[in-house]
Amino acid sequence: MEEPQVTEAGPEPQPQAQKQELSQAYWSLVWWKFKKNKLAIVGAILIFLFYFVCGLFAEFFSPYLVNYQSNHLESRPQPIVFKTPEGKFTLRPHVYGTVAELDLVQRKRTWVVDKTQIYPISFFVKGQPYKLLGLIPMDIHLFGINAEKYPEATVFLFGTDRLGRDLFSRIIYGGRLSLLLGLIGQALTLVLGMVMGAISGYYGGATDILVQRLTEFVGAFPDIPLFMALAAAIPVTWSPILVYFMLTLILVFIRWGGLARQVRGLILSLREREYVLAAKSAGASDWRIMFRHLLPGTMSHVIVIATLMIPGMILSETALSWLGLGLRPPLTSWGVLLQEVSAVRVIRFAPWMLIPVPFIILAVLAFNMLGDGLRDAMDPYGGR
Amino acid sequence: MSEPLLEIKDVRVEFEVRDGIIRAVDGVSYTVNRGETIGVIGESGCGKSITAKAAMQMLPKPGKIAQGEILYYRRDKFDPSKPTQLVNITELDPDGELIRQIRGGEFAMIFQEPMSSLTPVYTTGTLISEALFLHRKIPVTVGDQMSQKIMQYRPVTKEEAREISIEMLQKVGIPKPHERVDAYPHQLSGGQRQRVMIAIALSCEPFMLIADEPTTALDVSIEAQILDLMRELQETVDMSIMFITHNLGVVAEMAKEIVVMYMGKQVESADTVSLFYEPKHPYTRALLQAIPKIGRRTGERLASIKGMVPDPFHLPPGCVFHPRCPSFMPGKCDRIVPTWKEAEPGHWVRCLLYEDV
Question: What Cα–Cα distance (Å) separates residue A374 from each residue in A179, A360, B77?
Fold first, then answer.
């Protein structure tokens, strides 16, 4: 029935494109500012790599399976060299072999690097079978030793633990649980914190006081005893996965308060805007006003806070697991890996077991760099 | 005789604050008729907006209706054959289902500040659709029974909502509605935003539009366009308008009847012509004299009402206007509270000049 208008506005591709450009303006400004921040880009790339390598394709990138126990107990890291067994330079990486040696101090057999043996590393090599993404059966690993040619050779880049498991593979697998916990935990914190913050800020009055006192109450708890109590409350019979989710929930329960306060503050200022009154006069319910009209306005702020909160989540998991309150050994996380370093003996005789630490530091720094970059970029009109 | 839509009867709104109780609205009564425009004028803080908000049960905290009734003659929106229901709005739960149906669906409201009245994160189309999903229903003919059709109503679908949104944008005179439907509020000018507000308000075909100083924030040429638009739309959809303003020129153009308020009380009410040509209350007269006129001698000072608006905690005794009144009668005005009287047929006034005391 509006025929003339349709034909009038229809065949004008140029304003259409311009409109697209207009509504993208904010995000393109954010992107433009973000791009200029080199550190933030590095952080973003690192995080992407971490999640890609550890989170999605850990089986492919690691030469061994996570719980594969070789008979090389506490083998030293095997360095990569670029020379052939004949001693010539080559671009193909090789590893030195290891040899068993009796350690008279420890009175046990250890594995040390033997520079006379050199084995080539093969890429896309057939290895132990696994399921890619839990679905596709595969046995190709990114790198490893060709087991048919060199059945006695190993590739333990970061050495092995006291059960003979490859530390390099375990760091990659461990990153999966640690990083995923950061993500899932943060997502839940976000939901809880935003809902509570919105309710607190929008209703005000007695509701506000109640929620705020609750956050203070949770925040005032001494962390470690509370964790111990909660961890002790988890039945021993539960499966490791269930324990994992319980730990996530415990961390969320401890940490939602800070976000809730931030959201509350934002909602307090936003609810005085006239569009809230307008929505109300159009018959919108309180929930609709809170979740459709107010919370989206806090998103740019919340994304930044959330990004900066993920490292805390990862570190908490590490600390708790190290204390033996978090994940337990059949599961592998960075905290669980570090738990094995809790004896002085290990640090003295197997110092390579500390290699997970730089990875944790790297992941935490990457999130901080990304968060800082986002904070500056989300406010493209701000100073600096 | 026109049929009433909303009857405000002796309403008193009180705000209980730390220093005491403020009577923001004190004994106001007026009637909005179907399809007619009523203008409510008065200076800032005289309670004109609060009265309108009370009619929608949208009083800001800690305000409450302490006395009086707001009667709404509710017709069924989808079935005009049903008898008119009488709803007392003052008795409704401010968060209840019924009042939320009335808000937006039957009474719509537009505000002074078009700049901040649209949620910035949604496109105009989404904003209009939101109201449509809440209130608008599409009639479906289910079947014929003899000569009578059986009708049913279903909610609008997404595609229909978009179509109606475009149609509404076109109705309120936004150029290129097909593109503007995807525009965010910050991409629109002030006048366009106010048009979008009107589009949202009218999209659900309300019985009454409460326009709370809709043109105050706009420049004069846009103001004229918006007023024309409102009048045009009123003719096509047959709705009442409660027009709240402090601009006498605007209200003269728009309203059929006018209520003048001062300090929470209505001081005069009449049809537009007699109010402007024969103002009875000294306050109304003073207001009319304060309008700048073309052709006046340059250098002449603009008439103003002497004195200040009194402190709401210490209202003067007797008539609240007496300290500023040019016709102040000592011994009378500062003692006796004037009553609401019909000075001439259809012309009501609250002033001792028209009372025998």
Answer: 19, 21, 50
> Is the Cβ pair A278, B135 closer than 8 Å?
no
Please give the angle made by the CA atoms of A130, A131 and A133, to the nearest 5 degrees: 135
Residue of B304 and B183 predicted with greater confidence: B183
Name which of A144, A146, A169 is nearest A159 in CA terms. A169
CA distance B154 to B67: 39
For residues B109 and B56, the answer to whether their CB atoms sit within 8 Å is yes
The pLDDT of residue B258 is: 92
Instruction: For residues A237 and A96, give the distance between their C-alpha atoms in angstroms, rounded to a whole number.
Output: 44
Residue A113, chain B, CB below 8 Å: the answer is no
Residue B242 bridge partners (DSSP): B38, B210
State yes or no: cis peptide before B94, omega within 30 of 0: no
Distances (CA, A) of A183 to A47, A48, A175, A179: 11, 13, 12, 6
ipTM: 0.78
DSSP B49: H
Q: Do A19 and B182 touch (CB under 8 A)?
A: yes
Nearest residue to B185 via CA among A297, A40, A242, A149: A297
Residue B156 gets which letter from DSSP? Answer: P
Give the three-class secondary structure for A294. Answer: helix
Prediction pTM value: 0.75
Nearest-Å Rg of the Cα atoms of chain B is 22
Listed in order, strand segments (DSSP E) in chain A are: 80-83, 89-103, 108-120, 122-132, 136-144
- In chain A, which among 268-307 make CB contacts under 8 A with chain B? 273-275, 277-286, 292-293, 296-297
Q: Name the residue with tokens 């009501």.
A: B348
Q: What is the dihedral of CA A85, A90, A95, A98, to 10 degrees?
A: 20
> Mind listing the pLDDT tens digit for each residue in A133-159?
778 888 888 888 877 777 777 788 888
- Whether pLDDT at A6 is above 80: no
- The answer to whether A172 and A333 are in contact (CB under 8 A) is no
